[in-house]
């Protein structure tokens, strides 16, 4: 028992190590009415270190919207004064980020190893990819598609009954390091596929007729960093000559309207697009894999958080896709299906108009490669916890998302191209 407690204490210490910076920090939600409000928030961002949660940067704020951002403890009174003096309506979503981060680990599962209802660090996830593949050789194979900037191996799981010329659905998780609920879903999906194959009629049919390529964590270096140094890290961990700032936003790094809007050329910004499209090793590895398997990949799904949305192209432009009517109908039906379990409401639509314009995203890129069904999911929640979603919400979040993925898989099977 003592050994177990020591293990738990060590695990919590390492997990909470990244919480120590956040004492007294707050997350605000501001209601933006007009251009004047936008200008005020942009000025605020230029004079204080503000971490935007939604949207991703000050340049993406729109009139008649809400903006969520994190403020360091020492800046809070200045920020509150400015908001009050200018009569901006605001609420405090999180009054002490550190205590919220500690409350994340609220799952009472006493697992020292891998658990589907806890957040797992990268070492645990990596060991799990090997274990689940070796325990289910008839359904899962594991391959390496590349390495990260820091030299970690990007493991891809191929889930499905082996067969010739099978169509496939590609799904990745963990693009932005701090969105922990995202990798939790990729793991959950693989477990459900294995657990229900041969028992549940739909999953059995999907795995017989389709392959699912699942990349459990795309931005591994960033994810490791959120566990060890800074829980709120978003980008990759790449370095470039001429700047001390680290990392690129991988979801601004694809060759789809690269860096035209909703992305920054400043390496210190959270939405830095990188020195060139596909400059990141991770981006290049994913893009190469998809290019090499383009004939079989019929759908591309990328899982993010938060805000409960299902988005489809385009984000880099206000133009609509050729099959816009079909994508809209499919998204509508998918979020309706998702809501049947826990009543969770997702909104849906093209990225640019539904949230904000953002160039260089993987979904737009995949669509432009000819993958007709390309979607970004933003998982729970709507901001009460934001990036600090507690472990107790992993199960319901993943359960409802399974319904969405199954609905999509069924649609893809029925509309093969």
TrEMBL record:
EC category name: hydrolase
Alphabetically ordered keywords of this record: Carboxypeptidase, Cytoplasmic vesicle, Disulfide bond, Hydrolase, Metal-binding, Metalloprotease, Protease, Secreted, Signal, Zinc, Zymogen
UniProt cofactor(s): Zn(2+)
A Pfam family it matches: Propep_M14
Any GO BP annotation: proteolysis
An annotated Gene Ontology molecular function: zinc ion binding
Localization annotation: Secreted; Zymogen granule lumen
Signal peptide extent: 1-15
Primary location group: secreted
GO cellular component, one term: extracellular space
EC number: 3.4.17.2
CDD domains: M14_CPB
Active site per the UniProt annotation: 378 (proton donor/acceptor)
Peptidase M14 domain: residues covered: 118-412
Reactions mediated catalytically: Preferential release of a C-terminal lysine or arginine amino acid
Family in the record: Belongs to the peptidase M14 family.
UniProt protein name: Carboxypeptidase B
Name of the gene encoding the protein in the UniProt record: CPB1
């Amino acid at each position: 028992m003592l050994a177990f407690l020591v293990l738990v204490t060590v695990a919590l210490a390492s997990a909470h190590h990244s919480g120590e910076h956040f004492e007294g920090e707050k997350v605000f939600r501001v209601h933006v009415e007009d251009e004047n409000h936008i200008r005020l928030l942009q000025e605020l961002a230029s004079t204080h270190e503000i971490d935007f949660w939604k949207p991703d940067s000050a340049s993406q704020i729109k009139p008649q919207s809400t903006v969520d951002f994190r403020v360091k403890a020492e800046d809070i009174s200045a920020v509150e004064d400015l908001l009050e003096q200018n009569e901006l309506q605001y609420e405090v979503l999180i009054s002490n980020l550190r205590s919220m981060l500690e409350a994340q680990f609220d799952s009472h599962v006493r697992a020292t190893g891998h658990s589907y209802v806890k957040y797992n660090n990268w070492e645990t996830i990596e060991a799990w990819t090997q274990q689940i593949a070796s325990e289910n050789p008839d359904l899962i194979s594991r391959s390496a598609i590349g390495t990260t900037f820091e030299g970690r191996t990007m493991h891809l799981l191929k889930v499905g009954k082996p067969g010739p010329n099978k169509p496939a659905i590609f799904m990745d998780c963990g693009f932005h390091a701090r969105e922990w609920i995202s990798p939790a879903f990729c793991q959950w999906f693989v477990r459900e596929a294995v657990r229900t194959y041969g028992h549940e009629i739909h999953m059995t049919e999907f795995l017989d007729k389709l392959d699912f390529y699942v990349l459990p964590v795309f931005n591994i270096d960033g994810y490791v960093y959120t566990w060890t140094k800074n829980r709120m890290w978003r980008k990759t961990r790449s370095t470039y000559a001429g700047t001390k700032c680290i990392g690129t936003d991988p979801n601004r790094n694809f060759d789809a309207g690269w860096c035209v809007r909703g992305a920054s050329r400043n390496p210190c910004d959270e939405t830095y697009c990188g020195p060139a499209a596909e400059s990141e090793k991770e981006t290049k590895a994913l893009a190469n894999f998809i290019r090499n398997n383009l004939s079989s990949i019929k759908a591309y799904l990328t899982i993010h958080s938060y805000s409960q949305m299902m988005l489809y192209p385009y984000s880099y432009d206000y133009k609509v896709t050729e099959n816009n009517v079909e994508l809209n109908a499919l998204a509508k039906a998918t979020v309706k299906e998702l809501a049947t379990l826990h009543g969770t409401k997702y909104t849906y639509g093209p990225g640019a108009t539904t949230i904000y314009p953002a160039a260089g995203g993987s979904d737009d890129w995949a669509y432009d490669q000819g993958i007709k069904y390309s979607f970004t999911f933003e998982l729970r929640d709507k901001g009460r916890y934001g990036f600090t979603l507690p472990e107790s919400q992993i199960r319901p979040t993943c359960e409802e998302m399974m319904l969405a993925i199954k609905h999509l898989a069924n649609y893809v099977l029925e509309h093969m191209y």
